[in-house]
Write a structure and sequence with these properties.
The complex is a heterodimer of chains A (228) and B (258). Chain A is of the alpha/beta class and 228 residues long. Chain A has helices at 51-59, 92-102, 107-121, 136-147, 166-179, 193-199, 217-227, and strands at residues 3-18, 21-36, 40-44, 66-71, 77-81, 154-158, 185-189, 202-207, 210-216. A six-stranded mixed beta sheet of chain A has the order 5-6-7-3-8-9, sandwiched between helices. The radius of gyration of chain A is 18 Å and the shape is globular. Chain B contains twelve helices and no strands. The chains are: A alpha/beta (228), B mainly alpha (258). The interface between A and B is medium-sized, with 28 and 28 residues.
């Protein structure tokens, strides 16, 4: 198996300023992780465990405070998370256009995807209304549908299957499963065990910025369930 | 990201924001010209009607000053908030950080084209017919654009580092409004060395004065000063853009975590 990502001794500390008192929050510390090409890896852990920070470091949004990150040369990587980055005054259609252009499409190419995105979201007339009028469920649907345009070698998915009602969730899982080809590396952060069980063959459990367990999906999920 | 992709993205964001802005207000795109006209009306009432300013042809003097100043002040103010306003996107994608202030600058520049058209119309109606001196407006617009991009980039970084800078930039614009001769004539300064110093240290004052020279007084702007300013702005912009690229991770971290 060829490695896709290697994190060595990764640490991350954020400055905090709560109630006028300055301090630091250690989001990650001394974390080592290797992900191979084609791996379907689940990341679990409580709120504030460091999962989203880890995804951002993997995606290259910012570097770690300490340690090193190695990404296989030539592999593209993207982070998909829901509900973030929408411009509230723009309509769903306009946000979809913007998302497509941001993901590297030309404007004319992006326009060819807009109707399909609208149909997938099932937003109806709301697709042409400003996003500020959307419920959180509608936002996540739009986020999921625009995220499906991503076509990278390494996909980092942050809670993207928490989308609306059960029927849409099934549809979303089916659409996502078409993206999970054998050679695509996927790292999935999700609170729902079912989604992790369904997609991932390996799970890493993170707590207080450190790896608590790393192994086969069933074993790690069981240990996590027993601890919580 | 290629330069073509960069500018296509900047243009897409700017055009979509303009559409959204027009949708937000009842008078839509008309606000592009209503707002500067209202500013001029307020200043005219205060300085001409109430205070009785002695500046000749005050209305046109004010229109040229205010219409060119408003481009600078509004754009830099908006650009200042552009990075923090896009925290969601910055936390998801490693995009060039200059993209966000640049999109705001282009959006405001599209809006400003209507204001410049209105300025030309007002001048013609008032009897200032187009002449060869008007051609100096083109390099003056280019240099003002350069100044706006430089100040917009710096403002966006400062607000990203500490949000308090947004308030200071607002105050700074008010200071510049008074210090740049928007509603008073720099020629009224008695001491020539003071006038020279103001024009040297305040590029906004120099540009406003130059616009008036070209459009109202049929004079050629100080070309040596204009050339020096262009070289300085070009070098400074290169340094700032390079710094924003080099420290893009730091900026992303600031935006996402504060």
């Amino acid at each position: 198996m060829k490695p896709a990502l290697k994190l060595s001794n990764v640490g991350m500390r954020f400055a905090m300023n709560s109630g006028g008192e300055k301090g630091h929050f250690q989001a990650l510390s001394e974390l080592d992780l290797e992900v191979n090409r084609g791996d379907k890896l689940g990341l679990i852990g409580g709120n504030g465990a460091g999962k989203s920070t880890l995804l951002r470091i993997m995606a290259g949004i910012y570097p770690p405070g300490s340690g090193t990150v190695w990404r296989a040369p030539g592999l593209s990587i993207a982070l998909l998370s829901l509900g973030l980055g929408f411009k509230n005054d723009l309509t769903g259609r306009e946000n979809a256009l913007l998302a497509a252009v941001l993901q590297g499409m030309s404007k004319s190419e992006a326009k060819t995807h807009l109707n399909a995105i609208g149909e997938f979201t099932e937003l109806g007339r709301f697709y042409d209304e400003p996003v500020k009028s959307y419920s959180s469920g509608m936002r996540t649907r739009l986020g999921f549908a625009t995220g499906l345009l991503l076509d990278t070698d390494i996909l980092l998915l942050d809670e993207i299957l928490a989308v609306g009602d059960q029927s849409f969730r099934n549809k979303a899982r089916e659409a996502l499963s078409q993206k999970l080809t054998e050679d695509r590396t996927v790292i999935l952060v999700h609170h729902a065990e079912n989604a992790i069980r369904e997609i991932c063959s390996r799970v890493v459990w993170i707590e207080q910025g450190q790896i608590k367990a790393d192994g086969a999906t069933v074993e790690v999920l069981e240990a996590y369930a027993n601890a919580s | 990201m290629t330069l073509k992709q960069y500018f296509s993205l900047v243009d897409t964001i700017a055009r979509l924001s303009l559409k959204a802005e027009a949708r937000r207000y009842y008078f839509g795109f008309w606000w592009w010209v209503i707002e500067p006209l209202l500013y001029v009306a307020v200043f005219y009432i205060v300085f001409e009607q109430l205070l009785g300013t002695r500046t000749p042809d005050f209305l046109m003097f004010l229109i040229v000053g205010k219409f060119t100043f408003i481009w600078f002040s509004k754009t830099v103010n908006y650009a200042g908030n552009s990075l923090v306003a896009n925290a969601g996107l910055i936390g998801r994608m490693d995009l060039p950080k200059t993209l966000f202030p640049m999109a705001v600058i282009l959006e405001c520049t599209y809006r400003q084209t209507a204001v410049f058209a209105l300025l030309g119309l007002a001048l013609i109606i008032d009897g200032h017919l187009p002449n060869a001196y008007w051609l100096w407006v083109l390099p003056l617009i280019a240099v003002e654009a350069l100044l706006i991009v430089l100040c917009g980039f710096i403002a966006s970084v400062l607000v990203c580092i500490k949000r308090d800078f947004a308030l200071l930039i607002n105050l700074g614009m008010l200071f510049l409004l008074f210090m740049s001769g928007v509603f008073w004539d720099l020629n009224a300064i008695g001491d020539p060395s003071t006038q020279e110093a103001l024009l040297f240290w305040n590029p906004v004052a120099f540009l406003l004065h130059s616009f008036r020279q070209a459009l109202l007084w049929q004079q050629t702007p100080d070309l040596l000063h204009l050339f020096g300013l262009t070289v300085f702005l070009g070098c400074a912009l290169g340094l700032v853009a390079n710094g924003m690229s080099r420290y893009r991770y730091y900026l992303a971290q600031r935006v996402v975590t504060t």
